[in-house]
Every structure is written in structure tokens, then in C-alpha cells.
Amino acid sequence: MSITLNPTLQTAQDSQSSHPICRIISSSPINDIPFDGSYLTAETQNEFAPNTIMTSTGRMITVYIESGVTYDRYIAFQYTDTAREGFTKIQYDQGTNVDILSCAICELSTGNIGLIWIETYLGNYRLRYMVVTPLGVVITAASTIQQWATASYTLYDPFVRKLADNSYLMVYGFYDIGAGTYSIQKRTSSDFSIWSVQSTCSVSGPSTVLRWNHPSLLQIDTGDIWLYFDHVDSVSGNSERINCYYSISADNGATWSAATALTNYTDYTASGIHPIAAQKQTNQMHVIFTEQRGALWADKDETGWDLIMSQAAVLQFDSVNRKIYVSVASSNYFYGIVRIDADTWVVDDYWDGATSPAISPVFLNPNWCYAHLFNGSGNKLCAAKYGKTERAAMYFNGEAGSIVNYYFDDNATYGITANTTGLRTGLYVGQGYVDAANNRLWLFCYDSYVLKRKIQIGYIDTSDPGPEYTFREVVYEEDSATEGNLVEMSSRGQFLVVPDYDYIIVSMAHAAGANKGRLIIYSISTGAQVKDYYIDTNSSMHYYGLNQICFYNGVIYGTFYYTALYSQDARRGLCKIDIATDTITYHRPSWASVNEYYLRSLVTTDTGEIVIASDYYGVTIYNPLGDTWSLINESSLPGLKPSGDNKFTRVAYDSSESMIIAGNDDYALAEAGVSYFSRYGFLKKSYYRIGTGPAWSFGSAAAFVDSWTGYNAVVALDPDDQSIYAFWTEKDNTELSIKWDKESSSKDITPYIINGTDVEVNWSIDNKPSTLNFVVSHGHLFDPSNQLSLLSIYLKRGRILTLSFGEEISGIEYWQNQGKFIVIDNETSYGLHKYPTMSIKAEDIRGEWDEIEVIATEYFEQSPEETITDILVEYADLVNPTDFNLPTFVNTVTIHQQWLETTLKEIVDDLCDRFGYFLHMDVDGKVTAKRIYDQNPVDHTYSDLTKIIEYSPDTSFSNFINQVTVTGEELSLTEVSYPEERVDSFGGTIGWWQGTQNYKRYYSQDKEKVCTSPRLDVIQTTASIPFKLAGNISEYISYEDPNGKYCEVTIDCPNLIPELAMLIGTALMAESAVADATFLHSSQTYVLIAIFYILGSVVNFQFDIYARPVGRLRRSIQSTANDTAFQTELGKIVSKKIDHPMAETVAQCQQIADHELMVCMLQRKRVKFVKKGHLQDEAGDTIKIIHPYNYQNLTLFITDLTRKFKKPTSTDSNDGYFLDEIQAWRVT
Amino acid sequence: MKLGSYTFEWDPDDLTIPKKGKYCSYVLTYSSVAFFTFGLSIIGKIIDIPWDECPADQFERIQAIFEEDTTQTWYPELDDIIHYGSPFVNLPFEAGAVITGQTSGATATISNVFTKLDYIMLTGITGTFQADEVIKDDTPAPNQKSATITSLIDIPNYTVNIISWTGKYIKNLNTGIPYREDCNLRLLIMAQL
User: ipTM > 0.85?
Assistant: First the structure.
């Protein structure tokens, strides 16, 4: 089915003359808001507090503060050209001893720009102004409006607007220290040089004894002036609760309405600050403000955390996918795993006994599992059941969403059969560690009992597909550690593996009592002890050992429990073991002078600092380089935890964002949960609300920027479409920078396309993504690395390009979409005397699918169309039904298929290939598929040669295949039996007292193997003389399980107890009745011999059982398609064989074979031709043309279509065109 | 003629007519020809403005503009002309009269009348005259004069970049007055104002 064009466009396309037009629009692949932003400069000094305006000429001007070495002394003034293509920066140096706090700007009636700012200078606050041209040339030098002594007054953040009457209104926060009152002060001017004395904006409502700050102004189209500001509503200790307010003036600022709250933060965990507004249209206003909070918090009350507990026993950060994994456990009870997206702070998944995959009940409450002793890395976690019996361990892969259970013992309670060998009996699985890089689950197993102290350390290869697994022993020792060392390994201490150093580290610890701790390092490669740090042999080692440890650069850092006993009273804080020198030192936090710092879990940063959780003081960071300490707690960062305590027991670190993840696994529920906070202070993020008038109500707040590092945003509106330009302060660790972004950042790229170059789009049926190539001017401005260019965002990798071709007909443009493409490459070269152009290459969305790895899909039993849709929804995020326009496949059937370790594109291609289709992104960007078939109806007929420019046959892709055989497997299983084999071997003992015995013998250990025709092979028989004398001795199979899983072996032999009793009786009677001693002696002798024979009738037996195993196989099926004509012509058969996993019947094999043979036959009839471009045609169409020599009709199936648009280089050249270059199969 | 804020002391001897060019191509097919037009545009057109001679002062002042290396406004200030045809009523037009386009409503004052070639030169144009519309002057009926516009020349101003400015150094041996010969100002039209 070809494209249906607008009738007018269709008529124009059919004409010999045309006026082709081309349009390429660049747009963002995601919603513009929340903004991610680009840096305004690459400079490394601090840049902050932006303000921006759009001038009447279309220039956008932004000011912000830049730090000098000592002072924030520079005002940066960035202006754009009137087309807003590039930034130019000018810097105004206010001299030494000046700290500029904030600067605001407005356009003056003259077209110049007025700046006002507040600075501190030699003990004074100064309110100053300056006038410059739009290009930054100073017209009026910086002048002071007024100054105040910092000892008596404080000034905050000025803002200025030109009002509709061309006067100027300035506002700023003001604190009169003597009076103890805060206010928003205003000044007016008619010329921006003579300012009125300040007067208070009389806004009733908020208390004047708490701070008013960040005022901003907006005069809307009704003439009303809106004053926004933030206000400290209440104070508790170091915590402030701040909200945003607005007040309205209808008389140019003379009087103001009572304050109305814009935000409603009700506790001290978060505040709303820095409101600023812009009006895009009548009765609508965007208000942007910053949410400031100490930390993000999640516990069981968070949506998605569907576990009953909040205790964070293990915290791990997956830095690749930016996910936080929480093992939720309290002491010996494990409840499950929760995953939090660090960027969105959404609990996006969890796993427990009811999820898929489910955590085995073996590990979950009420069974015992000390999850806090099992550490991993990134998204790989582990756990193990506690106990010496029914032992089991679990490996969790968060990225794949899979769980593998390793059972070391049978578990009758849960009907579990052991599947892992190698773990010695009688040992606890004490602690674990996942070495994700080497696919190893390491386990520390032990028995501390005084008489049999044992340690076994080994690993399971997590890449082993199973179902049988092996625990590979690396270390086995007896009596290397004492009972006292080991006894608390089920509750404290830490097991850590460091592959890069060949270390296995076992840290045994105690909290109190007389038992001593110990730290032993083993070699991974040899299993031998490398180090043994023990107070008995090294007095520097702490008596109680190290409870939690981390390793960095050859040094172990460890926390321990303080004790004043055993001469340990001087050892406080953090223990450091330098393995190379065996030097053990202790480092006491500088932020408090106490004995016990309650240090618990610790982790290293990428720079070697140690982040440590304290179960009393907060989170502390130790820098070994300077032996310095810092502390983050409720005092330094209010809102760290909702409970307000400073108790953390677990910690992880997000190095890329310098964020700390801290949690608590204490019993006390109020303290449990996860905090996510910056080591550098408050989290700040800009949000926005849309207000709707004229009664003015505000919608809910939504994120304005996409990270917790972007705040205090300001905006200007694009005069063309009222879209938002935004600038904000970005905090990257300790550096402040300015970022900018644009709403509706779509841009028409067409004017930049260079004349005389091709705009070339290609579609093909070979499953390759469609491509778009073109060249633009202004390469230096489109260069993504050019931070001074506003065009730099439009052609960077990942942008969406929407291509349209069309015709201009009588002055009216008629457009036809040609598809959506993603920029994958842009090349610009700068050379002397060479204009920098940029070559763009883009592909349709399938280019991304080739890089989307699919570990395992679900098992599908549905139509191919439904399967394609489901897979693309899950893996390509195509959530909108309008993204799809899939037809029902001819010969569609239910497919039964699961894909493992492949790419998204391969899955989709598999499905389309199976049914003879190719996936096609249509001209509107929808997913569709077209049938590859030589009898499709003709879509477009070219009845003459007026459009055909070139024509040539092309057999470059042909081959000699004239027979295709497709082999598949039936869906149903067929039972088959295999040759007889020995399936069991057993033996035993049978005695004179037992009689007939039955033995139930399964054909396999797991009792699952099915066999038929069992046969007993007697290796050692039960027959003995007394048994034979008693007769009836037989050994045979007496019963076969109808399900074929076992048989019963019966040994029929007499019970000799009666015979024995009779003989004993005979002997006794003979003794009493017969006097002849000789006879008596002889008869007694015979009887006794018989008795001894019987008593000696205890015999061993040994049997083998042979049987024929039964299996279930899918029957192989196949079908063949023949090109008999070509076979005859060639004189031989050239066959191609295909094993197809989705062919389940002979008919399906035949369909696939027919299709494959058809493709081979058509490849021998390939042609290439060039024609005048026609927007109706696309790849997969069947068209009819006239042969240029014999004038016969040719029906062609288009396999490749390259459409080229070129505007002539100049008015004098004849090198323009709009052509279709086609490769096709001649189907008739 | 004016470039930026400088009005030329000597107007050029001739110049490229600033008019739109056509971007078009054709491709021969097996039995016909495919013709593509990509529209007309004056953007990107090269304008050559030559002087056989020009005063040294003018040369240096244009050189100064050239060295500014910024976008300039070019004011051709060429005469606005209307060619007219029948039906003629009460002609000829007279200089000083005000004409009004009967369809467009545009008005202008006649500065010169060339009766032999049936065209008038205009000043003070307001609005845009159209081809084929009737123009009438402001003489009261029944002596009011009218005709029909056959074509009109109305050269607007342009935003330009100077591509080159060349000339030869000549010093008049008799007068000692320096001047320049074979000068050429080459402009690139960026936009029509």
C-alpha cells in the first residue's frame, strides 16, 4: 500500500514540472521540561545567580555573578544576536573588596540595558546601577544608589522591571537589624538613574520578624504587577520552613494585596524558595520556584515499597543505571529487596516472596537470614539462610531481574532438593560477597564450636547456567581461628573479597565481653593465609576486631566497638591497617571528643575518602590525605531524616553526583529507611506551577529541571512562539555553573541546508534503519561543543529530525512527511579559509534497537503482531498506541517463543522474517510492517517513460540457490525410549530374622527420571545354605511405578526364626531324654551346627537395575520448495537449508521455504533505475513501469528507495533535482 | 546611493540589477524532460557596483566601511518608475501631480514624465502599486488623467555584506587630485528590507 497523497499534491507529483520543497525540523527526543540543560561556559570558577530578559529586538540578555580568586567581583553579561544563535560574553569587574550578591536587569525605553545589583564593600551593603548598550558597551558607569552598614542592615536579591508606563520598579529584601524587622523594599525611577527613596511594599500576612527574600516582579497584560517572594514561616533550631508567596498591585506598586501562599511546605524537611514568573498568554502564568530539602527519604510508606518493613540492612548503588538497591531486613529476618531510581527518587521495583521472580521462602521471615552480612556490588546482591541444615544461598541480579537459588541440602519443609555440591556438612553459611566483575558469589562458611572450629571459603560461578551448581572451595582450615574469634560471625564482622589484590578478607568482631576479634587475609589464588591481625600476636590490633571494613589502595579501614578494657581505652574512631607495612593506626573524628563515635558501615569514594555511617552522630567523611574529618547531621543539613535523629548504620556512595545514601536497620521503625543527600549541602531543584486566570488558581508543581543540582531558575520568553528560555544555577559538587535550555526546542533546519548538496533519505526492506543525510551551513554554531552557540543543541546526537518533502503549488506549500530520524553523527571541520559546514547522518529509531540488549523475554504464546507490540512497549518505550500501525500478518499464527541474550532489533526482525514481512517505520514515524511478496497488488503505474531517467538490470545480489528446505520442530512432545542403561545400583545385608524384603528404588537421585522395562542384575545374591535349605529364595522386581519413576525390588527369603527355635528346643529335649553321653554329644553337635548355620545366615547382596530411559522430544519436521525451472536450466540442485525455531508444522515450514525461495528467485531479477521523485512511492511498494527499450510492462517490487533532493548550487547551475533511485525485483 | 550611513559622492556608472534569480534545473528522461524549479530568490545574489573613476575620499570611506566587516544596509535609491499603457485618459501626466492606484490605493508624486516612452518617475511612494491597476492623478474631473500600469520598478533596500572593494591608485598629474580607477564594490544580498 503506497502513500495516499493530498489530491493537489498528487496531481503536481504526476506532472513533468514540479516545485519540490524540503523541510527538516529538529526536536527534542524527550519532553523539553524538565530541562536537562547545557552549560553556558566551560569555565571552572563559580558562576551563579542568573537573571535574564528578552529585549524588544530579539536579543536575549543574561547576567550572572562570577567569582574571582578572593571575591565574587564580576558581573557576567551575555547577549545574543537578534536571531538568538550565539552568546557573547562581557565581564564587568567591580574591583577588589567587592562581593556581588545578586544582579538584575531590564530593558530601558532607549533600548539600552539597565543593571542593578547588591554588593558588599568594606563593611557596607551597596545598591548600585549601571546602563549599558545591548552589546554591553557601558553608557552609564556603575553608580551607588545607597549604601548601608552591614552591622545594621542586610540586603537581599534585587529585582527590577520596566513597567508598561515606561517607569522602572525595583524591589529587594531588607533586614533592619536594629528594629529586628524584615521587609521587601521598593524604589521607582523614570529614567533608571534617579531613584526614589526606598519604601516598604506593604504586604500583609507573613511575619516581619522572619526573613523575606528573593522578590521578583511580573507585570501581566492586565497591568497588574505580581510581586513574588519567599518567606521564612517558622524556625526550629537550625531548620527553617520557607514558603513562596505572591502579592498583587493594581496601581504600579503603590499598594499591595495581602500575601497569598504559592507553596505549602508544612514541615522542616523541605522548603520553597526563589519564585519567579512569566506570562506566556492571557490568563496564564508560569511560576518557577526552587524546592530545597536536606535529603530525599524513602521507607515502607513510599509508593512502590511494598514490603512491611523499612530497615535498610544493605545499601548498594548501581552507578551505571543509577539505581539504589536496599536489602530490607531486621536482625535475622529478611523481607525482600527494594530498588529506588536515584534520579527520579521513585521506588521503581521490589522483590519478595510474591513477586516475579520471587525470593524463596527459605530466606524470608520467619526463617532466619542475616541479610546485613551479605554484601554485593552494584545491582548484584546475595543472602543465605542461617543454620547448619537445609542450607541455601541466593544470588540476585537486579539488572536482569533474576534470582538464582543455591540449595546445599534438601529441605523437606519446602520440598526442595539440593542442587549445589561442595559445601562441607556441619558448617554455617555465615557471610557472603558478590564479586560481580568475575561472576562469583563468595561464601564464608564456618563452625565455631570449640571442638571443631572450621572455616570453608569458596565461591559459586554465577554464570553457571545450572541446574546443578558447584561451590568451589578455595580455603579450608580447622582451628586457624578460635571459637572466641568466630562466635559472632553470624551477627557482626565482615567478609570481603578484593580480586585485584588477590585478597579474601575475613574480619571477626565483637561488641563486648571477653572474646577477641581477628582479621585474616587469605590468597584467592592459593587459599593460604596472607595476613593475620590478632591482638595476641599484634598488639596494635583492636581487641574486639573490626566490625565493618572497606578496602582502598592496599589499606583496610574498619570501625569497631569502643572499650576502655583490655588497654583499649585510647583507641577511638576509625582503625586503619596498612597491609604493606602491617601498620595499624587509629583516627579519631575531629568533630567531637567522645569515646564511642558509633561508627558502623563505611564505603570509599572514588578519590579515596571514607564515608562512614554513625549510629548516633550522622554521616562522617574521613579524608586520609589530610587526616581530616567532616560531619553531616541534622544541624549542618536540616531535613536529613524525618525523625530528626542522626542514626545511620548503613551507607553507600554515588560518586558521580557526590551523593550519600544512608540507611538504618535498627529495630526502631521510626529510624529505619533510606536517605539520599548531597555531601555538599542542600538538594535544590526548580519546579514550576501553571497559574490560570483571571481568578488565578495554580496547578500542581512539576519538575522544571531534571536533577537535584539545578536551582534558582529564571526565564525569558521567545518572542516568536512564547516558549521558555531557562537559565539556572547548577551545582556540580562544589562548583557552581550556569546551565540553560529551551522549551519547544524544535527548530526548522531547512534554511541552513547548503545549496548544491543532497538531502538524501533511504529506505530498504533489509531491516536496516532508514537513513537521512544532509549538510548544513553554520557548522561552527551547530557544533555541540560550542557552548557559546544557541544552535549547538539542535543537531547533536539523539535529536529527532522530522523530514518532509512536498510541492509548492500556486504559492501554497503541500507537505508529505517522510519520517522521523535520530541524529547519530555530526561532523564539522574547522580549517583556515574554509567555511565550517556540518554533515549530518541520522537513522530511524531502529538504530537504537540494535543497541538495546535483551537478557530474557517472557515466553510468548500469541500472535507475532501482539508480540512485536509487547516487546517494543517493554524495551523501546513505545507506550503510545498511536506509535503502532501494524497490519495483521498473512498466515499469522500463535508463536511460541522466548528470546535470550539478544538485541531488541534481532527479536523484531526474527518475527517479521518468519512471516515474510519487513519492519518499516512509516512516514509518520509509526511502527508498521510490509509484506515481501511477489504478488502484491500494484500500487503505482507509470504508463510511459516520461519519468524514467536511467534503467539497468542488476544481479549483484543473486545466487544459484534453487531449492530451500526448512526444518522445524513440532510444538507437541513425543515420548521416546532410549537404549537400556544402568540406572541404579544398590546393595545391603539381609539376615535370618528378616524374611521377605521390598526395596523401592528410584531411577535417579532427584526422583524425576522416567524409565521403562526395568531389569534386575544380581551382582551378589542373598542365597545361603540355610536359606536354600528352607527353599523359596528369589530376588526380583516386584512392582513398576506407572509413572515410570521407580520400581520395587523384592527379596523373598524365609524367616529362619522358627527353624532356630525348633533346633534349640530339640537340643534341650535331647539333653534331658537321652542318657548315652556319646550319642548325646553327637546329636547335640549336629543341632548346634545347624543353629550356627542359621545364625550365620546374614548375607550381603548387591544389585544393579537396568532400564530404558524415557524422554520427550519435539519431532523434527521439514518441507522443501523448489525452483524447478532454474534447476532444469542449471542442471543441478543448489540447496539452502534453514533450521527455523518458529516453524511448528509442515505447512509453516512450507510457507517459510516458499518465501525464502521466492527471495532467491527475485534476487536474480533485480533492477536499478532512477526516476523523477514521486512522494507516493516507498520501499515495499509494487509499481509498474515501461521497459525503456522493448516498451514491455515491468512490475517491480521496490526493495531500496533513495530519495534525493538537491537545490541548485546557484541560479546559474543546472545541478538540482528531486529524484528516486530505486532498486527493485522484477516480479512479472 | 547609500551604503550604511555613507551617501556616495559619485553614484556608480552602472550596477547589477538587484532582482530575483531563479533556482531551477532539468533532467532529460527517456521520453521527456523533468523540470524542477526551486523558486526565485534574491538572497545570496551578488551585486557588482563599478566606477570607472571615483574620488579618493569616496574610495577610502567605502574602504572604511569594508574594514568594519559587518553587515550593512544598502540603499540603491534608484528611481521608482511606472510604465503605463492604454486606456489613456487626458494624458500626458504632469510632474508634481499625485497619482493614486485605483486597486492598491498606493500614492506617489510624479517627479518626471517621459511621454515618448510612456513612463513616469515617482517620489514619495506610499503603499505598493500593482501591475494592471489603473492610476489616476489628482486633477479634478473631467480633466483627471489616468492610464493602466504595465510594469513598475520599485527597488527596495537590502541588508548586504561586502565581499570585496577594489580599485586602482591614480594621481592626476595635472591637477594633483588623487582619485581611483576601475573600482568595483561587490555586495552579497543577505535580506530584503
Answer: no
